[in-house]
Amino acid sequence: MRILQFMKRNLNPVFHITRNNFEPKIEEFGLRFLHKRGVSALSSSKFKEDDSILPVLIVGAGPVGLSLSILLTKLGVRCAVLEKNTAFSRHPQAHFINNRSMEVFRKLDCLAEEIQQFQPPVDLWRKFIYCTSLSGSVLGSVDHMQPQDLERVASPVSVAHFSQYKLIRLLLKKLENLDFKIHEGDRDIKERKILMGHECLSFAVTDNCVNVTSSFHKDGRTLKKDIQCGFLIGTDGAGSTVRKLAGIEMEGERDLQKLVSVHFTSQALGRYLLKERPGMLFFIFNTEAIGVLVAHDLQQGEFVLQVPYYPPQQNLEDFSPKMCEDLIFKLVGHELEDIAVIDIKPWVMHAEVAEKFDFNNQVFLAGDAAHRFPPAGGFGMNTGIQDAQNLAWKLAAVVNGISPTTLLSTYETERRPIAKFNTALSVQNFRAAMEVPAALGLDPTVANSVHRVINDGLGSILPSGAQRVILDGLFSIGRAQLSQAILNDKNPVGLSRLARLKRIFEEGKSLQLQFPAEDLGYRYKEGALVLDKNVIHDAENVPTGRRRDYVPSSEPGSRLPHMEVKSLSSVSDEDNFSTLDLVSGDKVEFVLIIAPVESSYNLAHATLKVADKLKVLVKVCVIWPYNRANNAAPCSVGNYINIVEVKKSPNLPSWWDLCGMNDRGAILVRPDEHIAWRAMSEIRYPSYEMDKVFSVVLGHAYKKPENIFDAQVD
User: How many domains does the chain have?
Assistant: First the structure.
């Protein structure tokens, strides 16, 4: 483990922590708790008493860090951001935003709507195309959009294709609307600041705060600045400094593949593809070159080419702008007059998850700092956005005095298993992508084996020039498999390969873009939630790399199912909204969903009383059936909202059918739209039950009353 570089100035003794500092899980009354030794003494009063301690400092101004800063600010938490770069990158990088992330963005002042407004039309990017060149023959194509994806059946918003640098621009605009300022150089670290050119050098955890030292450049000198914060969040990417300073290792597969990313523009190429074969990804295989072209925006003519990279025989210097232009021409099938190479970057594909997501409940990792995936299915940025959503409400609950810091231990408990699952899924999807070249006679595993032999075997004793000649020669022989003389339906070998390729596409065994079941259907299995008693849960999901449909679920830990609803008093379809909109994005508020049934009203009354005692906000939502056959009167006292189901057809399932429940049940939803608890039937002692539920979900210590009636709230 890397040793922490402690700051010279400490106002309090530093809290030292061992790598494995978890106590065993404790089960009581069928509820699961997580306790940690060395829990921080920080409390909301600490931030109120001392304004010099910034509640949250975020290191890294990528999509995850900026999203987290918006979420926290909207929840009333003072925060600031450090970014070591002096300017934001124009490299497109991540570009696919899945359903769940778009749902999060809906709560960021209509960010999702702006993304959909500015993204290219769906018909221009819904396909992956496999071809011998961009102007040559098409080997096959896969359409990744299905009718339900566009009809918004499972979600109130669709997926999007939007480059990362464009997303960052919109996020910065949202932060500007929240009075955030971007600064460089010597500025005080205050709330609502993004300090560019500031690098985190070290941190030390104390009983009262986290002492952080950052560096910045001014007038040719490197200066240092000390910052005190309650919580430090590392969203600083795959090479995270915060993770390294905390001594947290990564676990998983390294060096799956090395690639070079070439960012370029060509209006001519964009116009051609718009007319002839619009798509998002183009997999190109011919005797001269192999590569994957990402069409970030055909209308703007913006592209990124990904090509395999085999050092040390190949050097980054080999990929000069001129060489990259020639490579692009080979893949296009002809020269382009208006090509402009903007940037050339090497990168390494990993599939790793951090062994821990938090350090002493005061330092946390999110996004690429916590997990690194192959770019197959767009899991990297999307998993990070969902990390931010999970962490934000928990930090807000602690900073605002609703919960003790023990709640924060559930961040790792909930998010790390999701990261591990998504890692496995992205690896499966990456391997599916390799099925296509393998079917064409280009098995990537053979190429990697040849490279290893040259590096580590007999080839390693040869001069570097000879190694390069051998490698290029072997790859040239491999690409010869793609010649028209072989790859045609009159050649028995070519006919067999083309038939195999066709089966791969028809059976969905190639690279997939969407995973609805995993995107919307992931479930936290322990953490800030209360599991059902005596309920047999679904079998453990195993990643397959194949698209699977989402099945709504109301099991605790699941994301609240989407259904279109409207206010009971509304008469216009323009007033329709999603059940997800019942959850506020501007405060730490839980939502209790019930039917208009007397026993459920009793539960709601008890819930509001318990919530008042614990100083937590709760809104009660009464969902009325589509035909409103129930004659009970709507609730109009207290924090209640009465809504009614909206159906395009009377034959569609009711809300409670969609949730797999009956109308005698109830659902408690967390501020991150995940279900904290549910009752499948009438609750006999509602105050007692809800006192237990909120104690577990909010991280409070729970003491079972000696007499169950003592728990009842009048």
Answer: 3
Is 259 found in the same domain as 218?
no
* Helix (H), strand (E) at residue 550: none
DSSP code per residue over 618-680:
EEEEEEEPTT----PPPP-SSSEEEEEE--SSTTSPPHHHHTT--TT-EEEE-TTSBEEEEES
Extract the runs of DSSP E, i.e. beta strands, from 366-423. 371-372
Same domain, 212 and 76: yes
d(CA 478, CA 577): 55
Q: Is 473 helix (H, G, I), strand (E, B) or coil?
A: helix
CB 134 within 8 A of CB 272: yes
Tally the residues of the chain.
714
- Number of other residues whose CB lies within 10 A of the CB of residue 685: 14
81-93 per-position pLDDT tens digit:
999 999 998 888 9
CATH number of residue 257's parent domain: 3.30.9.10
pLDDT in tens, 344-390: 999 999 999 999 999 999 999 999 999 999 887 788 999 999 999 99
Burial status of residue 220 (CB atoms within 10 A of its CB: 0-12, 13-18, 19 or more): exposed
Distance of alpha carbon 366 from alpha carbon 238, whole angstroms: 10
| 27 found inside a domain | no
- Model pTM score: 0.90
The parent domain of residue 617 ranges over 552-711
Q: Looking at the structure, tell me whether residues 616 and 651 fall in a common domain.
A: yes
